[in-house]
Amino acid sequence: MSCTICAERNFPSLRPSMEEPTSLFATGCGLTGWNIVVINIAGLFVLMALSYYRGETRKLRHIPTVGPTTPILSYIGAFRFIFDASNVIREHIEKVPNSMFKVADVFRWQVVIHDPKLIEEVKMLPDGILSSFDAQNESLQTWYSLGRHIVTNPYHLPIVRTQLTRALPQLVPAVHEEVVDAFDDFIPATDGWTSVKALETMMKIVARASNRIFVGAPLCRDPDYIDLVVQHAVDVVRVGTTLRLVPSVLRPLLNAMISHVPRGVARGMKHLAPVFAARRKCHQEKGDADSEKSLDFLSWLMEVAQGEERTDWHLTSRLLMMNWVAVHTSTMTFTHALYYLAAYPEYLKPLREEVEEVVKRHGWSKVALDEMHRVDSFIKESQRLDPLAVLLVNRVVLKDHVFSDGTLLPKGTFLSVATPKTHLNAQTYEDPLRFDGLRYAKMRERALGQTLCSNPDVGGGSKRKFDMVTTSVDSLAFGLGRHACPGRFFATCELKIMLAHVVVKYDIRLQNEGVRPANRWYATAFP
Ligand code: HEM
């Protein structure tokens, strides 16, 4: 797949190859299509019998299904779900428009909610009824693939929510510097067009920019470290998806046999141990009052970690996990936006004008990013049409719960929210299938105009309502409710800097001009 960043201003060109899939999961697990089929067939029969006799089908009989529900036949649906989840979900929404439904995943039934009223209910339900952690663990066996210390002690979450988000005004210039350097390294300026593999190149740029605030420079530029953080995430997913195929009693053994994760942590320690040692030494000499203390995630982790979490091994594994949640998600999101930009180059001019005008007034700062409404709108519109997954907001029901439409979801049910229904709702979004890069900027202006007309003193709510960081039933790309992505404030800054840099520095076009490469999904893509 391809885009080009071009000659007009002596700019280089960015042109990813046509064969490159847009879904990381398609290649990311390191499994070929046939491997996936063989593994799934092997696991299929064991799980089919187990799940059927565990009575899951019986317990969820009252939830409509499109297609067969009997054992064996339901697995035809499950295989379709793996390779064509997006269309399976859309078909279900069309055929069962007024109620939740269930789809056969290879490993279980998955109940899908798409009615906006019920999605609001999901958002409000407490962790005691709907668990996000159990859903992550179930999908990717995080207990094994990441380690139980991460699952049982998620102390990184408040750090992402508070320290990272609050430090953004200080961090933005550093992220901008890293983005500029990384683009110069990977797509150096030339007089002509340069062909670039988008996903692969953006992955390295995102990994560098993210690690500038995770571990700081110069480590964020070390090619072996960058290769490790990208590869580690792939290993975690490969291990997690494979472990799901065997009964729980066999998982510790299989994990010990197939996991590369401990090897990844050991490789990471080679890079990180000297950094930890230097930071500890500095702390011993200067104490808490050190005014030159590094402002990065590693420092916050070292400050907050308790007990065994303070060891090099635990700190390294937590930093690799942060890379796992941050780098692939941001790369996928940015690559989609880049493809839209390449497919609709008419947006280059209005985006460029906005960036140049705002940067002239505020420099490359957080204030400037907050004023880049067109850039924000462009990425958000891309997320609306191409979120990370067709099903998001994954939760496990911990206690039997009756929804307001009278549907009972028994304990143990795996539920998700379908993105197409609300993201493509014609009542919210005019001409919803069309890509309109300035859609949210226009919606914001309209709402702000109306609010200011009715009361010139208000308008604060409208100001942020259409921003990328704001989650709602109509904008599910970052999830919803108390477990909505806490890293979205940082991710938004990083991706806006990247897009703003691309539009002022490059021209861009697709190898196959005007034709946006088709998406490829593995199951529902990212959890
Ligand atoms: C564009 C980039 C990103 C996208 C689209 C994205 C999307 C998501 C989604 C959909 C979820 C699940 C939300 C839910 O279930 O309701 C999530 C969770 C999470 N994300 Fe992100 N994410 C991105 C970047 C990041 C970054 C950069 C970080 C860290 C700096 C991060 C940290 C996390 C964490 C820690 C969770 C788990 C939250 C919890 O369990 O409460 N994400 N993300």
Automatic annotation (TrEMBL):
PANTHER family the UniProt entry points to: CYTOCHROME P450
Obligatory cofactor(s): heme
Gene3D superfamilies noted in UniProt: Cytochrome P450
CDD domains (UniProt xref): CYP503A1-like
One Pfam assignment: p450
GO molecular function: heme binding; iron ion binding; monooxygenase activity; oxidoreductase activity, acting on paired donors, with incorporation or reduction of molecular oxygen
Family: Belongs to the cytochrome P450 family.
Membrane-spanning residues: 24-53
UniProt: heme binding residues: 485
PROSITE patterns the UniProt entry points to: CYTOCHROME_P450
Protein name as it appears in the record: Cytochrome P450
UniProt keywords, alphabetically: Heme, Iron, Membrane, Metal-binding, Monooxygenase, Oxidoreductase, Transmembrane, Transmembrane helix
SUPFAM superfamilies: Cytochrome P450
